[in-house]
Hints:
7 helices
Amino acid sequence: MSIAEFASFLGGISDFVGSVAVVISLVYLAKQIKHAKQEVALLGRQTRANHASQVLNPIVSSSELAPIFAKLDLINYGSFGLSKEESIRFGAWFHTWLQAEQGSFYLLPKGAHDPLLNWMLATPAGAEFWKKNKGVYDAEFVQHVEELRLKMDAAPISSDAVLAGKRAGQTS
Length: 172
């Protein structure tokens, strides 16, 4: 093999190695972009939950806002067997809590907060709130909670049993 042939051979190898390096770099960049998109989406969800809390907390705690909302009849979270004003306060609190739960759904491992969501679904007020207000939550979160609800419907369990660590269908 002559020097020119050897140089051409080395050039071909370096072209091949360079091409492989480019492909590896592109795959790495694609993964980094996907991860960055997920982080931005998560930050957006957390920001939305924080914003909901800031907007709703005054309704929960103010002695003036809940009666105003009751008179305006702008919010109907559910009745829960409470007065209109109490229902608005409770619903605002419940929505704040569920926004935080939705954020945790994306932050934590799958199923990490299922016992809390099961507890909510096992309470009459929680079941009523969810049924009436689930349309304001992310589709993926709604699908997950609906799957939990179907399991709870198939094997009902009390909220006290959920808090004690029992699962739907568990007898002891």
